[in-house]
Design brief:
alpha+beta; two-stranded antiparallel sheet; 5 helices
Length: 118
């Protein structure tokens, strides 16, 4: 069984071998989401957009795609809205915004994700 090696600059990405792919568990994000409980902190939003004017200059708006539970949405005028209450604390928004315009902090104690199984 061949493991994927680190891609060298200029080389195309190698797909996983069929043998290795067969050993991976089937994971559905919906199955994972139902196994957590989120204690919402209504007084403190742990994810915020730093400056909405920066978002208007962003052509690709990757925040609408990288969040596995779609915390980021665009309203009718195109303004990015943050529904932090659904956050599963994966941290992708900390690194996914190319303009570094997302302020992400851990939820305050007693709030945030509580995992049901583990």
């Amino acid at each position: 069984m061949k493991l994927k090696t680190k891609k060298k600059k200029g080389q195309p990405e190698e797909a996983l071998s069929p043998e290795l792919r067969a050993t991976l568990p089937k994971v559905n994000i919906n199955d994972l989401v139902v196994s957590i409980k989120y204690y919402v902190d209504e007084d403190f939003a742990h994810i915020q957009i730093r400056d909405h004017s920066v978002c208007t200059r962003c052509a690709t708006k990757p925040c609408l795609d990288f969040c596995p539970v779609q915390v980021f949405t665009a309203d009718a005028q195109g303004k990015i809205m943050v529904g932090y209450q659904a956050c599963v604390e994966c941290g992708s928004c900390r690194i996914g915004c190319p303009l570094k315009n997302v302020d992400w902090q851990l939820p305050r104690g007693g709030h945030g994700v509580a995992y049901k199984f583990g």
